[in-house]
Amino acid sequence: MKIGIIGTGYVGLVTGVCLAEMGHEVTCIDQNTAKIQLLQSGQAPIYEPGLEPLLTRHSALGTLQFRSSIAEMAEDAAAIFIAVGTPSGADGTADLSFVLQAADQIADFITRYTVVVAKSTVPVGTTRVIMERIQAKLESRGLSRKLADVVSNPEFLREGKAIEDFLQPDRIVVGIESQQAARVMEQIYEPLTKKGHSLIVMDLRSSEMTKYAANAMLASRISFINEIAELCEATGADVEKVRLGIGSDHRIGPFFLSAGVGYGGSCFPKDVAALMATAREYQASSSILQATVEVNRRQRKRFLAKVAEYFHGSLEGKAITVWGVAFKPDTDDIREAPALDLIKSLLNEGAAVSIHDPIALPHAKQVFGDRPGIRYFNDPYEAVQGAHALMLVTDWDVYRKADMDLVKKSMNKPVVFDGRNVFDPVQMKNAGFHHYSIGRKASWEHE
Ligand SMILES: NC(=O)C1=CN([C@@H]2O[C@H](COP(=O)(O)OP(=O)(O)OC[C@H]3O[C@@H](n4cnc5c(N)ncnc54)[C@H](O)[C@@H]3O)[C@@H](O)[C@H]2O)C=CC1
Ligand SMILES: O=C(O)[C@H]1O[C@H](OP(=O)(O)OP(=O)(O)OC[C@H]2O[C@@H](n3ccc(=O)[nH]c3=O)[C@H](O)[C@@H]2O)[C@H](O)[C@@H](O)[C@@H]1O
Questions:
Q1: What is the CA(101)–ligand 2 centre distance, in A?
Q2: By three-state DSSP, how is residue 83 classified?
Q3: Where is the UDP-glucose/GDP-mannose dehydrogenase C-terminal domain positioned along the sequence (predicted)?
Q4: pLDDT tens track for 164-208
């Protein structure tokens, strides 16, 4: 089937590559010409494990093409996906300007029956708005409103595992109003449903809400375990043991219960904010969502406060190393990364900050540039030379496997603030470190 995709960001590009892998002929459009040129030369503009081989293969086969304007797309696409950004506006509402712009471009382009797929995360009611807008434009062009159906097809992939999540989804959710569009969506996803992945069909509003509810639920789980972690610290319990204890109850499950410096990324913060904005619009309650955001904010502050407390309230002149800038491992994405907040605060408090990240360092440089007090390192061991403390903020594998003897020898004082509970406190104590982690006794509290 011929498919067009508007937007080649994390979601659009992964969707394009995976739909090609599923046997479709895909054309990806992005208004960012630099991105398109890079993609046309066979290079991925993002770091995503497993993406590049598929990109190379399908570009060579001609089943995946990249263009900078919808006008360059074949006119006989059966479906066009909208996968553009929906960033947070000032009041937390989702900014729909990119989505509506893409919808207008599609409405000006189509000449035959096309299913428009809202893949971007959009607030309840938006797919209907897109539908009205496209159909009104078709009418004004003297064409039938029935030339376009708009469906909702939210995406649940995680960065760093995007290819795997797209090709082996727990479920595919489609919100739909027309039988004709339902058949097209069934055909698109047939290679996955044939393998047993379920396609859940529902109305538009429920599909849009499902996406927000999923992200809000996951974010609230993280805040829940972080609140329990704070209580563990206060009472002398160990959150890692508690996680094991509750996670083995099948009603709770073990996933998404890792305590740490809190969630970041381009989606949880913005989607929880957008859902709260929806609650305001409908004068409904959002107390769990508010608490989720509040705990997440507090978690970063608590982590920083522990470092300040260790140095008797002042970070002035302290050499602090930050390991990890990406909002999570296996991505170069630093949008809303906890590390950004922490680095800003450290610099404001007068600390000298050395940072390392295996992939995201160039993005960090775009944010902090030559700001006095900051230094960038490509080697994690060079980054800790002479440091008074190491703060581990992203749980990259390279840190889990780090040679801590070398780290200890390189540091001014062997002090580690472990924001992702990567190291064991007792082992760290025995190795001669002062180690603080989240929701567990600090090394110096162990007998
Ligand atoms: N990043 C993620 O892991 C996930 C994101 N989502 C949702 O998917 C949507 C897209 O997110 P990302 O891929 O992260 O965004 P992104 O910001 O990485 O990419 C968006 C792309 O759309 C392009 N674009 C914007 N307007 C355009 C237009 N009119 N014509 C052509 N290109 C246009 C931009 O140049 C950019 O390359 C958002 O609604 C997001 O909430 C959903 C699930 C996962
Ligand atoms: O809508 C989206 O964009 C996506 O948002 C998340 O995916 P993603 O943001 O890529 O990353 P996650 O793996 O969910 O991690 C988000 C944040 O939570 C943190 N986290 C995650 C899990 C955990 O147990 N504890 C925890 O602090 C991570 O470190 C990270 O900062 C969801 O997991 C995806 O299903 C969804 O499609």
A1: 28
A2: coil
A3: 321-425
A4: 999 999 999 999 999 999 999 999 999 999 999 999 999 999 999
Residue 28 sits in the same domain as residue 161? yes
Same-domain pairing of 191 and 52: yes
Give pLDDT tens digits for 284-341.
999 999 999 999 999 999 999 999 999 999 999 999 999 999 999 999 999 999 999 9
Full DSSP string of 303-350? HHHHHHHHTTT--TT-EEEEE--SSSTT----TT-HHHHHHHHHHHTT
The reply to whether ligand 1 has any atom less than 6 angstroms from the CB of 88 is no
**CA 266 to ligand 1 center in whole angstroms:** 10
Same domain, 84 and 178: yes
256: CA distance to ligand 2 center in Å?
8
Chosen domain end from 162, 178, 202: 202
Same-domain check for residues 57 and 189: yes
Distance 230 CA to ligand 2 centre (A): 21
Give the pLDDT confidence of 142-160 residue by residue, as tens digits.
Answer: 999 999 999 999 999 999 9
Backbone angles phi, psi at 422, to 5 degrees: -80, -35
Question: SS3 sequence, 238-264?
Answer: CHHHHHHHHHCCCCCCCCCCCCCCCCC
- pLDDT computed for residue 95 by the predictor: 96
Q: Which atom of ligand 1 is nearest to the CA of 32?
A: 35
Report which ligand 2 atom has the smallest distance to the Cα of 337: 31
Looking at the fold, whether 153 and 217 belong to one and the same domain comes out as no
Kindly provide the ipTM of the predicted complex, given to two decimals: 0.99
Contacts of 313 (CB under 8 A, 6+ apart): none
Mutate which of 267, 299, 421 for ligand 2? The one with the most ligand atoms within 8 Å of its CB, which is 267
Residues 163 and 51 both lie in one domain: yes
Co-location of 195 and 252 in the same domain: no
- Output the residue whose Cα is nearest ligand 1's atom 33: 7
Q: Which ligand is nearest to the CA of 11?
A: 1
Total domains in the chain come to 2
Pocket probe for ligand 2: among 51, 159, 172, 252, the residue whose CB has the most ligand atoms within 8 Å is: 159
- 13-69 pLDDT, tens per residue? 999 999 999 999 999 999 999 999 999 999 999 999 999 999 999 999 999 999 999
Give the range of the structural domain holding residue 139, as residue numbers without chain letter. Answer: 2-202
Distance of CA 411 to the CA centre of its chain: 33
In a domain, 299, yes or no: no
CB half-sphere exposure, 305, CA atoms < 13 A: 8
Are residues 144 and 234 part of one domain?
A: no
Q: What is the CA radius of gyration of the chain?
A: 24
